[in-house]
């Protein structure tokens, strides 16, 4: 089954900006600032489909954690797919973002090409705005992110998840909060990244 999704992405974690996992002027990154990455990622599908399932306008949020010193640094995460979608659309989003359909995610999603543990998948009420420089998102009562200002740098910063071939911008997260049965954290003034994506398979 062929598929392609295009849109915008916004993420934040507990690292200090610029997040050490980014490439800076083409130089690969390294360890997390505090030895453990805790954060959340979001995607807005501007246009795209998986087979006959049109996913345009739908959103996805993921809350994650991994430790640099744990063997394989496996990702543990909760995936939130847009509750506005019907059963087929939600299943298609889940299949893409869990890497079941191959293609781009097999090369760009660390939780697909590394060891990982899916803690839960929820159909959630997602409120998302990826307006450049002042983005935000919320997935039910589980996670909330608000951004503040771009992080000033003269360097070119890229991230593997949207793709190192795509331009993006480091930003500062005003507030990142998660609270559910799997995650409980709150950070202010930490790193974020906004970009676009074009995934296919």
Description:
The protein is mainly beta and 201 residues long. The protein has one domain (3-193). 9% of the residues lie in helices and 50% in strands. It contains 3 helices and 14 strands. The chain has helices spanning 87-97, 105-108, 110-113; strands at residues 3-13, 23-24, 36-50, 53-54, 59-67, 75-82, 116-124, 126-129, 136-139, 143-150, 157-158, 168-179, 184-187, 190-200. The strands form 2 sheets. Strands 1, 3, 4, 5, 6, 7, 8, 9, 10, 12, 13 and 14 form a 12-stranded mixed β-sheet that branches. The chain has a two-stranded antiparallel sheet with strand order 2-11. A hairpin with a 6-residue loop joins strand 8 and strand 9 (136-139). The mean pLDDT is 96.
Helix and strand composition category: mainly beta
Radius of gyration computed on alpha carbons: 16 Å
User: What is the overall silhouette?
Assistant: globular
In whole angstroms, how far apart are the ends?
8 Å
Instruction: Tell me the number of structural domains.
Output: 1
Task: Give the percentage of residues in beta strands.
Answer: over 45%
Number of strands: 14
The helix/strand series, from N terminus to C terminus, equals EEEEEEHHHEEEEEEEE
Quote the average pLDDT: 96
Helix content: under 10%
Which runs of at least 5 residues are low in confidence (pLDDT < 50)? Answer: none
Biggest sheet record: 12 strands, mixed
Number of H- or I-type helical stretches: 3
């Amino acid at each position: 089954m062929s598929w392609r999704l295009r849109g915008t992405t916004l993420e934040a974690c507990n690292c200090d900006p610029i997040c050490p996992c980014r490439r800076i002027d083409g130089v690969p990154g390294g360890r997390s600032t505090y030895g453990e990455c805790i954060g959340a990622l979001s995607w807005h599908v501007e246009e795209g489909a998986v087979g006959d399932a049109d996913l345009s306008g739908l959103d996805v949020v993921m809350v994650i954690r991994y430790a640099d010193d744990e063997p394989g640094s496996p990702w543990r995460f909760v995936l939130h797919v847009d509750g506005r979608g019907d059963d087929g659309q939600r299943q298609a989003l889940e299949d893409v973002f869990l890497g079941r359909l191959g293609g781009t995610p097999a090369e760009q999603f660390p939780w697909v090409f590394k060891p990982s543990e899916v803690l839960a998948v929820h159909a959630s009420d997602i409120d998302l705005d990826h307006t450049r420089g002042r983005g935000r998102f919320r997935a039910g009562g589980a996670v909330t992110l608000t951004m503040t200002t771009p992080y000033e740098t003269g360097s070119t910063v890229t991230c593997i998840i949207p793709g190192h071939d795509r331009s993006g911008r480091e930003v500062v997260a005003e507030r990142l909060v998660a609270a559910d049965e799997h995650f409980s954290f709150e950070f202010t003034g930490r790193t974020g990244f906004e970009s676009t994506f074009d995934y296919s398979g």
